[in-house]
Amino acid sequence: MAQARIVTHVRRINAAISIIDIQGDLASSAENVLMDAYAEGSTPTTRVILLNFTQLAYMNSSGIGLLVTLLIRVNRQKQHLLCYGLSEHYRHIFRLTRLDDAIRIYNTEGDALAAANKL
Amino acid sequence: MKQTITSPSNDTSDGGVRKSEKGTRKSMERYRQRSGAKKGLGLQVRMTFSYLGMTVVIVLLSELLIVLAIFTALTQSAALDKVALTTTRHTAQVYALEAGVQASGATLDARTTFQPGRPASIALPGGGVFQGGDPTIVIPYIDTQVPYIAPHQPPPKLLWFALLIAPNGQVLASSWPERYPASTLFTGKLTDKQQVQLVQNALAGKDGSMVATISQASYALAAEPVLSREKHVIGAIYVQVPVPSNQGIFQVFEGGWIFSGLAWLFIITPVGVFFGLMTTRGLVRRVHRLVKATAQFATGDYTQRVAVSRRDEIGQLELQFNQMAEQLVESIARQQALTEQNARMEERGRIEQELRTAQYIQQSLLPKEVPQLTEWRVATYYHPAREVGGDFYDFHPFEDGRLGVVIGDATDKGVSAALLMATTCTMLRTAAQRATSPREVLTQVNDLLYANIPSGMFATCFYAILDPESGRLHYANAGHEWPYRRYSEGVSELQATGMPLGMMPGTRYDEQEVTLAPGESLLLYSDGLVEAHNAQRDMFDLPRLKTLIGAHPGGIGLIDSLLKDLTTFAGENWEQEDDVTLIALQRAPAFPAQDPQEEDDLRLLSEWAIPSAPDNERQAVEQVAAIAQSLQLSGERLESFKTAVGEATMNAMEHGNHYQPDKPVVLQVLASQKAIAVRIRDQGERELIIEPDIPDLQAKLAGQQAPRGWGLFLIKNLVDELHVTNEAHTHTVEMIMYREETPAEG
């Protein structure tokens, strides 16, 4: 596997909400990094995982596959997966793939957190 | 930027150390003068006198103590009486014995007298009591010397005398004839009864002695009978010796004491002096050494040390002196090192500041922005190896719309190269304003430089004048690297010959011409790129550069691509050896179809290959994007096209070539008036990948489909047309994107 060109950072907003900041490329090489970040951000009390895409540089179909994998794990934990900071092009990709149905898209972190608190 | 340069004469860093040393020496000198440092000889003399004085005092005190002890003993006890009595008795016995010996027969011989002037004798003087006596007969006394007191002679202080008495009581001889004359009866002269009794007893044959007080004075009295050979009493000896009083004892010993005291003084003085000198010699010598070493130290000789010979107080002082000297030397050395370090840092700071200034000036000579030409794209890269360098590049816009393009390299590195670079740049700009061709420009600058720079210095230079409208490029070269032209069929060099600028006056420069067609690119570079070495000392070299250019579709993206290749070749820790300068020019690809019937025909614009490796599809995306942008494809359509290219390239690398680096993916970019197309060809032999038209997310979430498998779906949905072709040993995907969005069909 090629060297991952992704960097993640996990923030626990509170017991129920965690944010995963994603910086770089979301491709097949990012699998371990992304899953490790989810493992770090997901606690027994976590109900919502937010994906911060404001610093996403590139995403291909493998990256979309990783998001699907992440969704499977999130659903298994009966958690919600939200995201924000997605460019217009990748929102288009999300629409094409119907990922926007499974991963709600928000414009800002504040909007995403507000929605998360209601869940 | 104004620079303040500190001249060496103003620099007090080193002077500060010297000042410190001088100050130390001066203060020590002043202290020495104030304290009146005395010479060792004075110390020795004083110490010797001290020893002498102590010795004399001790001796005298000892003598006094002894005298006092004896005096006390004698005066406080009866020993003195006993000594006097014993002495007196003994004297009387001796006199009696001698008188008896001298007596002839039974009577005392008249010759037995007290010899005048000889107290030891009891021989009478001539003309004494016994007439006819032999005055020459002298009987020496033993033990005690009763002085003979001659008539009219002042009596001694201690009045002791001896009498020779006949049996009839007549004084036969007297040691004090004036007081006790001969021929007188002893009873008339000896007034004390005890005296008389003793004599009478002695005449009776009984000796006796006693201490009696007569006239308030103590005397030791002794009387001895004088016996004949037949042991008959023939007379008596009477001796009277005063028992010394305190004053008397003192009077007795006074002279002796004085004499002995003076004697001791005369004896002890040289001994004391000798002892003092010998004792103090070593001590004073050591002090000498310390004084000398200190004085040397004060003059700046810090090598002085003293030998530590003993572990006494002077030895500790010597040791501490040495330690102090070492510490002082270390302190001075540290201070000096610190001062030197500060000076070096100051100097380095000054040099760095000057270099920054030079860098700023050099940067100001370089173009602030790339020229904006219609149908042309220009990109540059400039990175000196040090703060300043010898590479240069420039653009000279002409009034008629042409553009002069310059790239060059001044000899050497650093400041000298920067100065030559500045000079050459200025000359080129000036020459470009007057000259009409690259040859003329180089010819003028060559002669000017030769006349104005030191021999051995020169600059390479490639000068070209571009006509943007026609694409014609006239160029001449002064020893610089030949630029590369990237065109659809491959890569070629723009060759032209000529000596570097400033090397030889009157150099003739070849001038050549080439026309750059739409889509073609030009790369000008300096030797810092091709002469870069990796850790194994392999050189980047021209063949590698040519291959890389050929593998690239061309355009301004070529610079980034080459820099990435350079980093890959040289490694992350590459230490740049020489300045690197790159200029990339590309004539925008034109939609070649002029005939309306051919406007939909796709014409090949560029073709290149990319090794099959994970993440290499990014490279394809960027390269295609650059071309697509130049063809005015933008916005979401451009992004969609890029994503589609990336997915198709990744598909080709992964599924077609199985990520085998020796099986590259070939990309072609084609364009027509209406559309842009990318063909991606891999070497896989496979059927068309069957994917669901619409991947089912829910099925994937339910685990009924693999999470992946979105590639072809995305391609189909992101481009306007998708064509897949299988040929012998190749698999080609063609994606077409119209420049304008077409209404959805149906």
Give a quick summary of the entry.
The complex is a heterodimer of chains A (119) and B (746). Chain A is of the alpha/beta class. Chain A contains five helices and five strands.
Task: Give structural attributes.
heterodimer, A: 119 residues, alpha/beta, 5 helices, 43% helix, B: 746 residues, alpha+beta, 5-stranded antiparallel β-sheet, 16 helices, 42% helix, disordered N terminus
What do you see in this structure?
The complex is a heterodimer of chains A (119) and B (746). Chain A is α/β, with parallel strands linked by helices and 119 residues long. In chain A, 43% of the residues lie in helices and 31% in strands. In chain A, helix 1 links the parallel strand 2 and strand 3. The mean pLDDT of chain A is 94. Chain B is of the alpha+beta class and 746 residues long. Chain B has 16 helices and 20 strands. Chain B has a 5-stranded antiparallel β-sheet with strand order 2-1-5-4-3, sandwiched between helices. In chain B, a hairpin with a 5-residue loop joins strand 7 and strand 8. The longest helix of chain B has 53 residues. The radius of gyration of chain B is 69 Å and the shape is rod-shaped. At the A-B interface, helix 2, helix 3 and helix 4 of A face helix 14, helix 15 and helix 16 of B.
